């Protein structure tokens, strides 16, 4: 396991998430613990169903009503699980923001993108005037390198490419200058070239905005381009956590080695089938 961090921003301890159904209870997250320091990127990696997304939604308290959450999630010295809902709403989008993997389902198709980003500002800055909000939105669109934001402010999601729609979601996430950004598979729906551009953008934003980030992915190779440390998740548990370099060069857990073997490289023998996890 990694050494204790200094300047801890997010401290998750013994987090458990169970879903109650008519057939009984299903444990999605089984007592995991991790920390993220200010300005750090922690990669949370595992296959589908390993509990990654349930973990991120638990941090934001956005799980379905049939979910039961245990443990503690300390952020900026307070336990998010103990906050009243009104206080939690004030933190979502302002101190902790999230970007999702599929922008077409996350964006409203009949609302101009500029107004969608503006809604994120209004939710936390009700005293701002309309022109002030618009200027804040345009700055965010500039920050994510959307071309000609003044002209495209009034356009709709279908008028943008997949990569540009993801940039719009990132603009919505950073417009209020949060301390922590949760990125849930933010490049999965994109082709390789656009994926590289979005990863580079996130790295730039991390430096320019001083962001800490929880980067969630099933792909260790993608995570290696972004994260300082990696936590590997399997069946609701973290089975290994170390620096990105240690994970790649000296993996300790069999599941981590399987994930690495399942990712093709330039040295992979193309005559052999890829490993499965």
Automatic annotation (TrEMBL):
Keyword Cell membrane part of the UniProt annotation: yes
GO biological process terms held by the UniProt record: peptide transport
Pfam families per record: ABC_tran, oligo_HPY
Membrane topology: Peripheral membrane protein
Highest taxon of source: Bacteria
Molecular functions per Gene Ontology: ATP binding; ATP hydrolysis activity
Location(s) in or outside the cell: Cell inner membrane
This protein's record includes keyword Kinase: no
Keywords noted in UniProt: ATP-binding, Cell inner membrane, Cell membrane, Membrane, Nucleotide-binding, Translocase, Transport
SMART domains, alphabetized: AAA
GO cellular component, one term: plasma membrane
Ranges where the ABC transporter domain occurs: 10-260
Signal sequence region: none
Family: Belongs to the ABC transporter superfamily.
Name of the protein in its database record: ABC transporter related protein
Species for this entry: Terriglobus saanensis (strain ATCC BAA-1853 / DSM 23119 / SP1PR4)
């Amino acid at each position: 396991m990694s050494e204790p961090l200094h300047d801890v921003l997010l401290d998750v301890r013994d987090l458990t998430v169970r879903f109650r159904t008519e057939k009984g209870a299903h444990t999605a997250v089984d007592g995991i613990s991790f920390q993220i320091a200010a300005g750090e990127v922690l990669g949370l990696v595992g296959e589908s169903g390993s509990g990654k997304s349930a973990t991120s939604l638990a941090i934001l308290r956005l799980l379905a009503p049939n979910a039961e959450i245990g443990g503690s999630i300390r952020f900026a010295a307070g336990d998010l699980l103990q906050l009243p809902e009104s206080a939690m709403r004030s933190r979502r989008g302002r101190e902790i923001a999230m970007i999702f993997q599929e922008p077409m389902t996350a964006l409203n198709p009949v609302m101009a993108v500029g107004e969608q980003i503006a809604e994120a500002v209004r939710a936390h800055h009700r005293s701002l005037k309309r022109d002030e909000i618009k200027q804040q939105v345009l700055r965010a669109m500039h920050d994510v390198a959307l071309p000609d934001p003044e002209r495209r402010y009034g356009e709709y999601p279908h008028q943008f490419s997949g990569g540009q729609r993801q940039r719009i979601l990132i603009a919505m996430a950073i417009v209020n200058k949060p301390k922590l950004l949760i990125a849930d598979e933010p490049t999965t729906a994109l082709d390789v070239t656009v994926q590289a551009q979005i990863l580079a953008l996130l790295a730039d934003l991390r430096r320019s905005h001083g962001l800490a980030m929880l980067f969630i992915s099933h792909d260790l190779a993608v995570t290696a381009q972004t994260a300082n440390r990696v936590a590997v998740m399997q069946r609701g548990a973290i089975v290994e956590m170390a620096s990105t370099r240690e994970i790649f060069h000296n993996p300790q857990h069999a599941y981590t080695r399987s994930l690495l073997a399942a990712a093709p490289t330039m040295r992979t023998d193309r005559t052999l089938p890829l490993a499965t996890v």
